[in-house]
From TrEMBL:
Every Transposase IS66 central domain range: 8-189
Name of this protein: Transposase
Parts of the chain that traverse the membrane: none
Length: 234
């Protein structure tokens, strides 16, 4: 998600990306957006950050890049609790990342049974620091505990992604657009912007020229014809 201005109101530019489709929507940071886009019957694997609204989706992955940044920040603290917990959590994540990358070189395998005891020890560490007097240490320990199964779900299938970097990279172009335009002026402008961004990035994912497709759309509508379908994936 990217913070967005719709006139004087704060909104968010959401991005949902898959192998052949990228979809944007501008709205509030709320459960309603997820329900609108994914509905009640979404059966795929959802990669997300730690936003609580995602927790209703059981088959979900957590972005480890976000967690690693937090553990690295705690590691650099001069206080005992954050430094100790940050060092331990960072070591656990980096070790498991190495294991996951190595597992991708061979046939698919479930790593959870192999690392059950290893994870149990780290869970005890999180329990120890969940009531730390240091705010960020306490918050991260509780974040691990509250989203435990989701964070380590990737171990059951190491071919799944470890980060939501693809979604974050998709937003980079629109960060520049936001700076140039200062957002949108009303709901209609937000709707049009999100549609255009979705069309442009979906065409690019499908190795199709978005400008050629948009020209075809304009030509068809001027002639009173239906909007042509998006190009198929190459």
């Amino acid at each position: 998600m990217l913070s967005w201005k719709e006139w004087a109101e704060k909104r968010w530019l959401w991005v949902f990306t898959s192998l052949k489709v990228t979809f944007y929507i501008i709205g509030l940071r709320s459960q309603k957006v997820l329900d609108y886009v994914l509905g009640q019957t979404f059966k795929g694997v959802l990669m997300s950050d730690g936003y609580k609204a995602y927790r209703k989706f059981l088959n979900r992955l957590r972005c480890w890049a976000h967690l690693l940044r937090k553990t690295k920040g705690l590691k650099q603290s001069l206080s005992d609790d954050p430094r100790t917990f940050g060092t331990e959590a960072h070591a656990v994540l980096t070790e498991l990342m190495d294991v996951i990358y190595k597992a991708r070189e061979g046939p698919p395998s479930d790593l959870l049974p192999i690392y059950r005891e290893f994870l149990a020890e780290f869970k005890q560490c999180c329990m120890k620091y969940r009531d730390s007097t240091h705010k960020k240490t306490r918050e991260l320990a509780r974040e691990f505990l509250n989203d435990w199964d989701t964070i380590f779900h990737v171990l059951s299938n190491p071919t799944w992604p470890l980060t939501n970097n693809e979604a974050e990279q998709a937003l980079r172009h629109w960060v520049i657009a936001r700076k140039l335009s200062h957002g949108t002026r009303n709901g209609q402008g937000s709707h049009v912007f999100a549609i255009l961004a979705s069309v442009i990035d979906t065409c690019r994912k499908r190795n199709a020229c978005p400008w050629k497709y948009l020209a075809e759309v304009i030509t068809a509508r001027r002639q009173g014809l239906d909007v042509p379908p998006l190009p198929l994936a190459a």
